[in-house]
Design goal:
Keywords: Cytoplasm, Metal-binding, Zinc, Zinc-finger. The chain is mainly alpha-helical. The protein is 72% helix and 0% strand.
Length: 134
């Protein structure tokens, strides 16, 4: 099934077996790609040579810290993909965890790990902004 086929399906088919299979394959492909990137980055970190020049050491350490932050973000995304796969296994994927309403196919295509519908996500962001402002 292609994205166009998915979007052409009637609303009554929301999270049908075919749609769940589509998102399972999408999530697995993203997971494999992400895991490969993480593995490559870890390998690059292990292979970095140490220098005796203080400027080179400082620059290398800054680069290493940047790579570690990137790896941390990618690990968090990997965890979200695993969580989405678990939701799929339980038959809860595609439904807003706050309202129980459909998240929507277009939103899931853009962010397959989404757990909130647009309205719930906007409310969450407003609450976060309000907490930061206080």
């Amino acid at each position: 099934m292609t994205e166009q086929d998915l979007l052409a399906q009637p609303p009554a088919d929301y999270m049908s077996e075919a749609q769940q299979r589509f998102f399972r394959e999408l999530l697995l492909a993203q997971r494999d790609e992400l895991q490969a990137r993480i593995d490559t980055q870890f390998q690059l970190l292990r292979e970095q040579e140490t220098n005796s020049d203080l400027a080179d050491i400082g620059s290398a350490e800054e680069q290493r810290q940047w790579q570690l932050r990137l790896l941390e973000r990618e690990k968090k995304l990997l965890d979200k993909i695993d969580d989405a796969m678990e939701l799929l296994a339980r038959g809860e994927y595609g439904w807003c965890r706050e309202t129980g309403e459909p998240i929507g196919l277009q939103r899931l295509l853009l962010r397959p790990t989404a757990t909130l519908c647009i309205e719930a996500k906007e409310r969450e962001e407003l609450r976060e902004r309000h907490k930061r402002a206080v």
